Give the backbone structure.
Amino acid sequence: MQHKNKKRIRKGLVFTGVFTLLIGIDFFTGAFSNLYYLWTEKDQELRAFLQQDLGERLNLEAESDGVKIKIKGAIADVVQTLVFYEIEDTEEDNQNMMQNFEGAFVENQDEIMKPEGFLRYYPPDLESDINKAEKNVYHGKISLLPLTSDEGTIKLKITKLLKLIRDSSD
């Protein structure tokens, strides 16, 4: 009986030691959270922000006229607010994008955003692996003005999408 108890205690201590070691590795290196984001997020740029805990993952979705728009994440700092999105054309093989200067604006901008600053333009990235994977899905980002507080609700209104035309000779 005593021999069985010693074996159980030894197994328990080994298990506790291995568990503590794994928790310590994750605490100091963040290895497991990196694996989690590598597994769950396809967009490399958004993944990098999320791994550094610089933004928030969102799962907002709207659909109209065969076009599905997903807001995947938002990253805000003192310079700008980045909104990562995915647009899927469910009826045709088109890729569409948003542009914050034309067709996308924040309805409550005066309430939650700083008036100083300027919007950055991010041209469409057609050469990325994520945008080459599917003919009817485009992953992009738009830049908005910085937020006045750490938390807030951005009322993004999208009135126009731009159709991306890929040159077949490229």
